[in-house]
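Note to self: the last two entries modelled the partners one at a time, which told us nothing about the interface. This time every component goes in together.
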Amino acid sequence: MSKIDDGALMRLIDGELSPQEAERIKAAALVDPAVAARLEGMRRLRAVASEAFPVAADPRDQVLAGLITAKAAAPRFPLAHLGRALADAFAPRRAALWGGLATAAFVGGVLLGPYFSEADRSLAVGAGGALADADLVRVLDTRLAADGADGDGRSVGLTFRDDEGRWCRTFRADESRLAGLACRQQDGWTMRVLAPSAGAPGEVRTAGADTPDAVLTAIDAAISGDTLDAAAEARARDSGWR
Amino acid sequence: MDDFQTGLVELLPRLRRFARVLRTRDADAQDLVQQTVERALAARSKFRVGTRLDSWAFTIMRRIAIDEGRSLQRWGRVVSPENETTARVPDATQADEGLRADALAVRDAIHALPEDQRYAVALVLVEGLSYAEAAQVLGVPAGTLTSRLVRGRQSLMQTLAAQGVTG
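The predicted structure of the combined assembly is written out below.
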């Protein structure tokens, strides 16, 4: 079909062409019925597609609007809120968690103290939330999302930079049924959030799937730009997370 | 209510529409809207005044939907090989709203598109975002967005022509 491809026709319909380019396509459509028909088909598709999904009032929006309004009235301490939510989530599973837990439950600077005995704290965390678990540090340092889980079920999911330019990575420790977010700081990794994860150890999974809400929320709060694709992730690792 | 809240409330119908392109079942679309609102409220300090709230909220929804989609796919593989086909059957609870036959056909055809093409079509054809805005929401380069959009459209036009709906 001449020199006018579907990409150009599409840009015309979507208003993404310069005026000169648009004129060129329109002129071509005048002399070539095939181009004209294709253009008309695309125009119709766009019209019908937006008609297929109308903006409609929904009674459930009222409930959501209430949620949005109520949130403002409450004092805004997102970390405290997250901490509470996490504590609630941990509470019923405390006994099961302690055995497998080799890292600290450190939430944005708030150590969930009541949930850890003195003995547990020794294997927990250094000052400022620095991650001390050598195995998990190794996974964060070296493992790519595409590698999947190591022999102990530890894997990484998403990698991105935060507002301060620090590298951050989500991880799962399936044996411990935990997932979290850690960011690079002073040659180490600092825990941002740690949450119980669903799913049994050894279950077939895709890296990044089933990320707990608390971790997703922490990602949204921290992320600057987008997550890395596989190639960029490998480059970042190879350059030592600089 | 401050500007952020007002903006988010006004955005609800569009968030729901975007969710209904991404999810076939009405209940799933509702979950997606609710999670997006909760996440947006939690992350509101990241929203920069003067930038577009709709793109920002769509980005949040896209992240949730993709993450959920991966786990749904995995679940589908583990649980039942016929899950994929059953998921495509339009849900009676997603009301027809008296749509014309061609609009209904397009809706089903869009739901049947591969995920990456469906997202591109949803943002540009349904939501009316520019290519640059849509690429930003999807976190992909502009070239990737346009090629997904071309492929999605070609496939839609093919499907609909085969059904005698357009063309």
